[in-house]
Amino acid sequence: MPAKTDSFSSSHRRKEILRVVLAISLIIVGITHFIRPEQYARIVPPELPYPVGLVYISGIFEILGGIGLLIPVISVAAAWGIIALFIAVFPANINQAIHSIPIEGIPHDPLLYWVRLPFQAVLIAWAWWYTRHPEEQPGTPDVMAKIESQLNH
Q1: Model confidence, pTM
Q2: Is residue 143 within 8 Å of residue 72, measured between CB atoms?
Q3: pLDDT for residue 106 is more than 90
Q4: Distance between CA atoms of 41 and 63, rounded to whole angstroms?
Q5: pLDDT at 73 > cutoff 90
Q6: Is residue 59 within 8 Å of residue 31, measured between CB atoms?
Q7: Nearest CA to 123 among 41, 66, 57?
Q8: pLDDT of residue 8
Q9: SS (H, E, C) the chain
Q10: How far apart are CA 74 and CA 40, in angstroms?
């Protein structure tokens, strides 16, 4: 039985490390939406209005999603929001691939733009992983105990 616990502990630790990696990545990418909005606005499909505004909105949600992913009591909602965000920005990724639109800081390789498209499914699956078994997240039992205590008073 200890081997099972060790295996669970190891996989749980790996999941939590990857949670931090995803969260920090989202926060960093979100911040770049404010530093270089014109770069991201270039790939917004021309049919959509206010491309820079949409870049700012997506940047805000990336930052909030990354922060939320680290807070046990809201991490599941944040993960669902991140999934919605990844789906919402997918048309921009398609537009970039179809029109081979370069973004400063990303190697300009049309093949890379096409390879990036299925990677969006990987990002969605990664975020979805954090919608599963939220009770096992570090800090959740403490948060739930405090909420329960407050409700009982």
Answers
A1: 0.82
A2: yes
A3: no
A4: 18
A5: no
A6: yes
A7: 66
A8: 58
A9: CHHHHHHHHHHHHHHHHHHHHHHHHHHHHHHHHHHCHHHHHCCCCCCCCCHHHHHHHHHHHHHHHHHHHCCCCCHHHHHHHHHHHHHHCHHHHHHHHHHCCCCCCCCCCHHHHHHHHHHHHHHHHHHHHCCCCHHHCCCHHHHHHHHHHHHHC
A10: 28
The whole-angstrom separation of Cα 123 and Cα 2 is 33
Q: Sort 43 into a burial class: Cβ within 10 Å, 0-12 / 13-18 / 19+.
A: buried
Backbone phi, psi, residue 26, to 5°: -60, -45
Q: And the tokens for 83? A: 């999934």
Rounded Cα–Cα distance for residues 42 and 21 (Å): 27
Nearest to 81, CA basis, from 8, 130, 135: 130
Tell me the two tokens of residue 33: 């939406």
Q: What is the pLDDT of residue 134?
A: 72
Which residue do the tokens 């954090």 mark? 130
Q: Which residue has the tokens 């499914």?
A: 121
